[in-house]
Each structure stands twice: as C-alpha cells, then as structure tokens.
Amino acid sequence: MGAELDDQAAREFLASIRVGGLCHGTAIESTGSRGVAVVLDGFPARPLGMVGPLDLSWRPYPASPVQVGQRITAEVTSVDLDEGIAWLSMASAEHPELWAFLRPLRSGEILSGTIAAIERFGVFVALDQGPDHPVFPGVGFISIPELSWHRFEAISDIVQVGERVSCEFLYFDTWNGEARLSLRATQPDPFQTLADSISVGQTLHGQVTKLVPFGAFVQVADGIEGLVHLQELAATPVETPEEAVQVGDEVSVVVIEVDRPRRRLSLSRRQVSPDRP
C-alpha cells in the first residue's frame, strides 16, 4: 500500500513539472551510459530526475563529471509519467539563449551565416541571428563530408574565413550545443544528375583511380566513381585487379547498376562490346 501511495505521489509531482522550466535537485548516483540520477527539490523520497550523458554540464568543457551530493540546476526537457522520470539538461540551463535558438530549428531549413573558422575536422559558421557560442567560434558546424559533393585537397578550396554561406540544417547536436549543417545539400548532387542521363547497359569511358582487393574504381564523370568488381574486370577470371588494369588506365565500362539511394554505380569491363577498347 505504501509503495502504491509513493508511486501516486511521484506521478502527481511529475505531472506538476513544466517542460522547459528549471528545476533544482541533488545528484545521488551516476549510472554510466544512462546518466545521472537526481533527487528533485520537493520530492525527497527517491530520484525522479535524470540528466542524460549528452546533457551534462559544460563547466568545464567537455561535459564534466557530476559528483554525488552536488546541487544542480537543470531544464526539464521531457517528463515520462509511465517510467516515472523527468529528463533534465544541465547544459541547456547554463546556456538558455543558445538552446532557445537551436531547439526550434528543423531539418531541411536553410540557414545563412559567415565562415568563422576552418579546422582540420570541419568549418565553424557564425549564423545570422544566432547567439555567440560559449566554446566554439560559431554556433554552426559543417563536417568535411558535408562541404562538397566533389573531392577536394584542402577545405580552403571550398570556403574561406569571412565568406558568406547558406547551408541546410541537419540536426541539433546537443553534445556540442551546435547546429550541424550541410553546404553540399544546397548544391545539385552530381550523382543524381549523372543517373538521370545514363541507363543500365550503356557504355561509359573513364580512368582507373584506385585498385582494391575486390576490384577497381573508375571515374566516369567529375567527382563520380563506379566500382568494377573483380569478376567484371576481364573476360577471363583474374585473382587481383592488377592483372587486368592499373591506376591511370583509360577504360570503357558498361553500366550494370545505378543505386540512387546509396549513390553507388556498378560497372563492368568484361561486358564491353569487343569492338570497344
């Protein structure tokens, strides 16, 4: 009977909590990958709060360990009455302006800003109307794969510090408190353009760019490569791609599959008509 009353009291307490509001409590246990359990002020019987591992404090950065007995202030991000838990974010409470800007953004939205810094792992963007980031040069971030559809040697070949850019919003990275962006998503995908112009059985011409144990890659258009599987490299079976082609060879290939969702092109050299080189 006591447990039932306790559960009812917990549900009533959780039902009174407003998502987006601040709450206070005491950390009592770190549960590893699940996060930190918190006894909330107003309900001392047992921990009803949980700070997930991606929502811990940024003081210092990255997320600092929360000590047992530590007093915390956190924003309520959701309340699960069935599980009996209020999910909390310490990082959100520490930087409310940043979270208020990032949380309403939706995937596919176009955001504009200025390239604030170029690092070896990507590019930071100072977004228009966005707040300053407490740690990074900009609140937006473009990873290297999201910079361009085409291959490039240096990031500076694609963007320069101070350049104005418009990017597609991908998702809110709560771990770093930043907007993950894509510059290439705002540009035509050359693979889809090529796919519109070719068909299975068509012969293409290109250059061998890379040999791998299972075949060879052939560039058939600017920045677009297709795989010629080992069994499709020659009319007679070969054990290694080197037996059939070398990097730099100009070859003719037949399209045997166009995989649009995965942006993959399967080719055959074996099926090329004998009157082709």
Q: Helix- and strand-based class?
A: mainly beta
Q: Biggest sheet, in brief? A: 5 strands, mixed, barrel
Main CATH class of the largest domain: Mainly Beta
Name the CATH superfamily classification of the largest domain: Nucleic acid-binding proteins
Shape: elongated
Number of helices: 4
Number of strands: 15
The CATH topology of the largest domain is: OB fold (Dihydrolipoamide Acetyltransferase, E2P)
**What is the C-alpha radius of gyration, as a whole number of Å?**
27 Å
Q: Which strands sit side by side, in order, in the main sheet?
A: 1-2-3-5-4
Give, in order, the helices and strands.
Answer: HEEEEEHHEEEEEHEEEEE
How many domains? The number is: 3
State the end-to-end distance: 86 Å
Q: Tell me roughly what share of residues is in helical segments.
A: 10-25%
Q: Which CATH architecture of the largest domain? A: Beta Barrel
Beta-strand level of the residues, as a percent range?
Answer: 35-45%
What would the average pLDDT be, to the nearest integer? 89
Task: Walk me through this protein's architecture.
The chain has helices at residues 2-15, 90-94, 96-102, 190-197, and strands at residues 22-30, 36-40, 49-51, 71-80, 85-89, 110-119, 122-127, 140-143, 164-173, 178-182, 203-212, 215-221, 224-229, 250-259, 264-268. By secondary structure, it is mainly β. The chain has 3 domains: 2-94, Beta Barrel (OB fold (Dihydrolipoamide Acetyltransferase, E2P)), CATH 2.40.50; 98-186, Nucleic acid-binding proteins (OB fold (Dihydrolipoamide Acetyltransferase, E2P)), CATH 2.40.50; 191-268, Beta Barrel (OB fold (Dihydrolipoamide Acetyltransferase, E2P)), CATH 2.40.50. A 5-stranded mixed beta barrel has the order 1-2-3-5-4. A 5-stranded mixed beta barrel has the order 6-7-8-10-9. Strands 11-12-13-15-14 form a 5-stranded mixed barrel. The longest helix has 14 residues, at 2-15. The radius of gyration is 27 Å and the shape is elongated.
